[in-house]
Amino acid sequence: MTALAQLAAGAVQDWTAAAEFAACTLEAEPRSIGAARQFTRSTLDCWDRTDLADAIEVAVSEMVTNALRHGLSLAPVEP
């Protein structure tokens, strides 16, 4: 089961992040927007930067939304 499927099933994620870098893999579906927000907030909590959480969560949400909206193509790309 993917992390996104676990999240959809109500599982609480135990996100871990290094002190200087954090990353997560998202699937190309709208539910990933919420997963990205949760990952962002959890990472900022680990880094004791909750003062930035609201603004950064909005920015991450916008970036993931734009990536999903504009980065996916239903038409095959010719070589």
From TrEMBL:
Checking Gene3D superfamilies in the record gives: Histidine kinase-like ATPase, C-terminal domain
Protein name from the UniProt record: ATP-binding protein
What keywords does the record list, in alphabetical order? ATP-binding, Nucleotide-binding
UniProt-listed InterPro entries: HATPase_C_sf
Q: Name one GO molecular function term.
A: ATP binding
